[in-house]
Amino acid sequence: MNSSTSSVGAITAQRADFEGPLRLLNGQALGPFSLAYETYGTLSPRADNAVLICHALNASHHVAGTRPDNPEDIGWWDNMIGPGKPVDTNQFFVIGVNNLGSCFGSTGPASINPATGKPYGSDFPVVTVEDWVNAQALLADRLGIERFAAVMGGSLGGMQAMQWAIAYPARLAHAVVIASTPRLSAQNIAFNEVARRAILNDPDFHGGHYYAHGVVPRHGLSVARMIGHITYLSDDDMAQKFGRSLRGADNYRFGFDVEFEIESYLRYQGEKFSSYFDANTYLRITRALDYFDPARVHGGNLAAALAPAQAAFCLVSFTTDWRFPPERSREIVSALMKNNAQVTYAEIDAPHGHDAFLMADSRYHDLIRTYFAQIAEDLSAQAVPR
Amino acid sequence: MNSSTSSVGAITAQRADFEGPLRLLNGQALGPFSLAYETYGTLSPRADNAVLICHALNASHHVAGTRPDNPEDIGWWDNMIGPGKPVDTNQFFVIGVNNLGSCFGSTGPASINPATGKPYGSDFPVVTVEDWVNAQALLADRLGIERFAAVMGGSLGGMQAMQWAIAYPARLAHAVVIASTPRLSAQNIAFNEVARRAILNDPDFHGGHYYAHGVVPRHGLSVARMIGHITYLSDDDMAQKFGRSLRGADNYRFGFDVEFEIESYLRYQGEKFSSYFDANTYLRITRALDYFDPARVHGGNLAAALAPAQAAFCLVSFTTDWRFPPERSREIVSALMKNNAQVTYAEIDAPHGHDAFLMADSRYHDLIRTYFAQIAEDLSAQAVPR
Questions:
Q1: Which of A113, A146, A248, A330 has a Cα-to-Cα distance from A172 of 20 to 30 A?
Q2: What's the complex ipTM?
């Protein structure tokens, strides 16, 4: 467990261009399009050691390591992926891919619409988890990966791993679904809706065509991020980190500027986010979350939705996650057990709420490490038959 | 328990004018000022049967009955207060008062500032729970009430009842504190802060002086209300009422207009609220919530803060209230018990979240009915000594 670990080092992002068109769930066709991705480790001669990492709301294909031009720009799941880390890049060929509609390199609302020569803006389609997975499958084809050793993700990323198991049952051996849910609750949708309202109401939104106006709906996006951020942290964790501490003062100042530390933190998070994230992307990613509900076309029967899956599942939830609480993961586990699927489930007692999936809790990481070590062992047993 | 109940009928609001100035917690002096109020029932000759009802965020002095000009305008706690109701106006003289800084009749940000001849706007002071209670005490003086039989409120109203017991220990026999808390948590403050940001960022806010521009920060206020509303309902209740039902469609429409019923509900709530509530008031009331923390000047020792209290306490919390959960009420109960105060506490298993305090759950109402019946019995025992 205490083997030495290191970083995958400086990684250059790559780009795969596709003529398309990709048929989307909403009926539209998108093309041409590009996907930005990164890879870590080496694809085995049998091309059987590939692991696809699916990202959540505001993340990207930059999963591990640093950027050649910026050693401070560390991948969002660097504590999980690298040499000697739980997903060990000495054994696995790991791929991070940026989803369609994002703002980090893959084709999205800020990209040029070939039909107009201008940014898509609000003309960029409302993409879904299903669409993302279909695009990821085209990237897998391009990279010569017929079958992933595992598809893995947390939160919205976990939805993609589930969707892979449903849509491409023969193309993954394991689905690793962390801090996720088979569908958003009314409360989850409500938070997304308020965030979207804040963006759509911002006068700088200009109906989604703000690029032409040289502005971004910064205020709306900032409020949206603040709302999201509250739901990522647990009540206890927020109490422990910030409590009712005042910012730079011993007494109340009786105004509406920053007074409490928690306000300062949230404003900072909101402002930072609104400086680099695209509002049209935020709208689409929250909508993709709202829409994901594989049981919907099966009358709410999740076991029926998961029936095509052949992958073994590993699910993890965190006790203080009130965004996607353990009950939601248990629902997936129950459906899989009803289908006699192979499933490993752990509920980790962690204080960090939804964000726990990004943190290096040792019980959590040990579990993932053990799970992937077993996958590696199985692969080498298959590679070198006795 | 099933005695017949009726409404207090059509009630005309009254107004009490005060020269002031009222010294506020922030050091400013406010005056002249007015308080809007209503009364139900009859003050006893001994003036010992008065009950003060303190309101929460968006409510007013219109607690029970209807308005002479509008039989549909029913008071916000009409199910609790009236002839034969839990707080029985055949026995008690009940007063509803609108707090300073509100927008329903008492002096607030939309009132004319005598210093300028224009609406106060952002020059209206940031008032606190302490200030409200001090103003309410002046109204009690005016009405000839030396000592209340009870001061009662839910949520922010409960904070006022607590503050009464601390600041005016001899002036109330009972403090009835429902779904309340001795202080906001970091998460509570966080939600308030996001709501305020939405208002302050709205270009129609004009630094709080929007009255002069003939506009109101409608969008910001609407988003603020939507955020608040999510925290008033329980996750389960929202799931039961709305679930993932689509609004007027069988299938996804892949856009950002209303898609789910919960979105429609929240937008309606936000828009309705922003049509009648004042944004400057919203800012101040949320700040008053943030600031209330009687233990603060006692190094966090709530028992020390409550030490002056002489009132008997009745506290009620609701199991699914995640805004001010039962733990917060239990904290008050523990502090009171440490002080050997007389305290009754009930935790009601109700599905409606924070809003449960406004609903007619029979266990909850029976408890309040019984509690007030005992108060009435004690009063008549004192009035007619054997």
A1: A330
A2: 0.95
